[in-house]
Design brief:
The complex is a heterodimer of chains A (117) and B (113).
Chain A: E1 3-5, E2 10-14, E3 19-21, E4 24-26, E5 32-39, E6 46-52, E7 59-61, E8 64-69, E9 74-79, E10 88-96, E11 106-107, E12 111-116
Parallel strand pairs in A: 2-12
Antiparallel strand pairs in A: 1-4, 3-9, 5-6, 5-10, 7-8, 8-9, 10-11, 10-12
Chain B: E1 5-7, E2 10-13, E3 19-24, E4 31-38, E5 42-50, E6 65-69, E7 75-79, E8 88-95, E9 103-104, E10 108-112
Parallel strand pairs in B: 2-10
Antiparallel strand pairs in B: 1-3, 3-7, 4-5, 4-8, 6-7, 8-9, 8-10
The chains are: A mainly beta (117), B mainly beta (113).
Chain lengths: 117, 113
C-alpha cells in the first residue's frame, strides 16, 4: 500500500534560520512521482515541485532545495534563510505512474512551519 | 492564465439537505480530481475524471456522494442528505494529462449544522 509519512507535525524557527521538512514514503511501484505542496493560511494548495522516481538528482530553486533518496525512501525539503512568508503547512505527496493508474495523490499529514520574525 | 476555480467559496447547510459544489478546471486540462480535507482525515482523494473514460470513484466515502463532469470541463460534486461528518474543505484539482502535475483550486468550505 502507498503511504506518506511526515513525522514533524509542527516546526517553529526564527527568520533566517534554515529548516528541513522530512518526508518518508512507501510504495511497491517502481515508477512513481513525489510532490511538495504549500498551503498558506489562505488555504489554497500551491504546487512546489514534482520529482520522477527515476530522477534522483537533487534540485534547488532559490531558497528551496529538495533531497530525494530512494535508498531511504525519503524526499526531504529544505528552506534556506527562512522568511515569515514561508509560514504555511507543507504537504508531501506520492502518486502512482504505472499504466492504468489513477494518479491520485496520497498526501502526508502535513508539517506546519511557523517562521517567527 | 486562469487557474482552477470553485464555487461557492463557503457553504453552510442543514443536516439532511443536498449540496452541489462546482469546479471549473484549467482550460484544456483533461484530468480532474476531487479531494476532501478535514481535521480528522487529512487530505483524501474522492474521485477522478479523465477525458471520456469512466471515472474512478474509489475514494467516495458513501453512496450519498456523486460527481459528474459535463463536456469534459466543468464538474459538480453532489452530496445528498448531508451529515455533520461531511463538514470539510472540498478541493478540486486539474492536470493537463494523466500523470502530470495537479493544480488546485481554492476549495469550498462546507459546514453542515
Amino acid at each position: 500500500a502507498q503511504k506518506v509519512t511526515q513525522a514533524q507535525t509542527e516546526i517553529s524557527v526564527v527568520e533566517k534560520e534554515d529548516v528541513t521538512l522530512d518526508c518518508v514514503y512507501e510504495t511497491r511501484d517502481t515508477t512513481y512521482y513525489l510532490f511538495w505542496y504549500k498551503q498558506p493560511p489562505s488555504g489554497e494548495l500551491v504546487f512546489l515541485i514534482r520529482r520522477n522516481s527515476f530522477d534522483e538528482q537533487n534540485e534547488i530553486s532559490g531558497r528551496y532545495s529538495w533531497n530525494f533518496q530512494k535508498s531511504t525512501s525519503s524526499f526531504n525539503f529544505t528552506i534556506t534563510a527562512s522568511q515569515v512568508v514561508d509560514s504555511a503547512v507543507y504537504f508531501c505527496a506520492l502518486s502512482e505512474a504505472g499504466g492504468g493508474a489513477t494518479n491520485k495523490l496520497i498526501f502526508g499529514t502535513g508539517t506546519l512551519l511557523a517562521v517567527q520574525p | 492564465g486562469a487557474g482552477v476555480s470553485q464555487s461557492p467559496s463557503n457553504k453552510v447547510t442543514e443536516k439532511g439537505k443536498d449540496v452541489e459544489l462546482r469546479c471549473d478546471p484549467i482550460s484544456g486540462h483533461t484530468a480532474l480530481y476531487w479531494y476532501r480535507q478535514s481535521l480528522g482525515q487529512g487530505l483524501e482523494f474522492l474521485i477522478y475524471f479523465q477525458g471520456n473514460s469512466a471515472p474512478d470513484k474509489s475514494g467516495l466515502p458513501s453512496d450519498r456522494f456523486s460527481a459528474e463532469r459535463t463536456g469534459g470541463s466543468v464538474s459538480t460534486l453532489t452530496i445528498q442528505r448531508t451529515q455533520q461528518e461531511d463538514s470539510a474543505v472540498y478541493l478540486c484539482a486539474s492536470s493537463s494529462a494523466p500523470r502530470e502535475t495537479q493544480y488546485f483550486g481554492p476549495g469550498t468550505r462546507l459546514l453542515v449544522l
